[in-house]
Amino acid sequence: MAEQSFTNADLTAAIFSNVRMCSVRFDDVDMSCANVYNANLSAARFDDVNLRGATLRNVSLANVRIDDCDVQGLTIDGFDVARLISEERARRQAANNR
Questions:
Q1: Are 31 and 41 in contact (CB under 8 A)?
Q2: Which neighbouring-strand residues pair with 80?
Q3: 55, 48, 89, 45: which is closest to 75 by C-alpha?
Q4: Beta-carbon count within 10 A of 66 CB
Q5: Other residues' Cβ atoms within 10 Å of the Cβ of residue 83
Q6: Mean pLDDT for the stretch of residues 18-40
Q7: Which of 18, 19, 24, 27 minimizes the C-alpha distance to 4?
Q8: Residue 73: helix, strand or coil by DSSP?
Q9: pTM value?
Q10: Are 74 and 64 spatial neighbours (Cβ–Cβ below 8 Å)?
Q11: Could you tell me the CA-to-CA distances from 84 to 2, 5, 60, 68, 89 in Å, in that order?
Q12: How far apart are CA 67 and CA 16, in angstroms?
């Protein structure tokens, strides 16, 4: 089924197991309430994606780059990321003003 195109398809409750989906493109896709287990998303790119309320557990974020994102309410291991970023920006600004 390589190089297939699905447009206006309803795959609600579909199960994909042991599937190779390298270099696929998802555009205007509703994946709310999706469950992703044991997946390799290395080198994936996410643009204009809503992850509000998502839970990432036992996930490798090594070498992940996050730019121009709303991080209000984001916690990592219980730490408020927005607060930490704000504090770091203030620290850097103070260091630059010395």
A1: no
A2: 75
A3: 55
A4: 10
A5: 13
A6: 93
A7: 24
A8: coil
A9: 0.75
A10: no
A11: 44, 43, 20, 16, 9
A12: 30
DSSP annotation of 80 reads E
Helix (H) or strand (E) holding 93: helix 81-96
3-state secondary structure of 60: coil
Quote the pLDDT of residue 4: 87
How far is the CA of 46 from the CAs of 11, 64, 66, 86, in angstroms? 21, 11, 10, 24
Return the pLDDT at 3.
86
Q: How many CB atoms are located within 10 Å of the residue 84 CB?
A: 14
**Which secondary-structure segment (H or E) carries 86?**
helix 81-96
Average pLDDT estimate for 26-31:
94
Tokens 């996050």 — which residue? 66
